[in-house]
Amino acid sequence: MVLKLYSLDTSPPVRAVYLTAEILGLQLERIHMSLMNEDQLRPEFVKLNPQHTVPTLDDDGKIIWDSHAIMIYLVTKYSKDRSLYPEDPFTRAVIHQKQHFDSGLAFPAFIRIVVSFRNR
């Protein structure tokens, strides 16, 4: 079983999925997406992911995008135990809180900084 991951190596969310797969001992078929060449806008990719974002996971025809959703899916489906994603609701809430910190605060701030330098 090989999981396909549509990815861009420089993307922090993609790298988080890489690390999760590595911890779980999973093999990923990495399908490089060139955003500069607009690979994410190709009809065959948009059919998989209408948000045309990376990472996007294909697990035997089951398509998931968003790094947080992918990591939770991989840990829930493939982990040998529950140490990475315990059953306790509070512990899971803390995991979600930390996962969403980057998308809610850190990443938007990073983008603002990058755009401000680009506009100089």
Automatic annotation (TrEMBL):
InterPro entries: Glutathione_S-Trfase, Glutathione_S-Trfase_N, Thioredoxin-like_sf. One of its GO terms (biological process) is glutathione metabolic process. CDD domains: GST_N_Delta_Epsilon. The lineage of its organism: Eukaryota, Metazoa, Ecdysozoa, Arthropoda, Hexapoda. GO terms for molecular function: glutathione transferase activity. This is GST N-terminal domain-containing protein. Residues 1-82 form the GST N-terminal domain. Pfam families: GST_N_3.
